[in-house]
Amino acid sequence: MTPADLPSVQGRDLLGPGPGTARTFYDEVGGHPTFVRLVDAFYAGVADDEVLRPMYPEDLGPANQRMLMFLEQYWGGPTTYSEQRGHPRLRMRHAGFRVNPDARDRWMLHMRAAVDALDLPPAQEGVLWDYLERAAHSMLNTFDA
User: Fold this and answer.
1) What is the sign of the dihedral through the CA atoms of 74, 117, 102 and 61?
2) Mind listing the pLDDT tens digit for each residue in 102-137?
3) At a CB cut-off of 8 Å and minimum separation 6, what does 57 contact?
4) What is the pTM of this model?
5) Total number of domains in the chain
6) What is the CATH number of the domain that holds 105?
């Protein structure tokens, strides 16, 4: 067995960076520039969304930066999110927002467009979308319209 045969957790090689270790998903999809494109495209959609936009403060910049840091860390990039904000606790951090099926579906619509804009190879696109779709469903906290 080689280090490349070992499993990874949230995109991170269990042995950490070093010679002979597998590249992370973050590296495979293009690193920071790819995640900047993803998050920027997502928030471009949110900016004009009548349901999602009111959930954010006037300036979308800080939310954009937090999502960028979170996704980069999750997929094996810099650990800036945890260094600055601690454990992600996604459900807790979103508990104050009314996330119903309509909000989830709109989030997924904008994220789907952002993922499609990356034009990733099908296998990488599938891995990314699978996670994002599961994350969106896990944020539901009400079924009220």
Assistant:
1) positive
2) 999 999 999 999 999 999 999 999 999 999 999 999
3) 63
4) 0.81
5) 1
6) 1.10.490.10
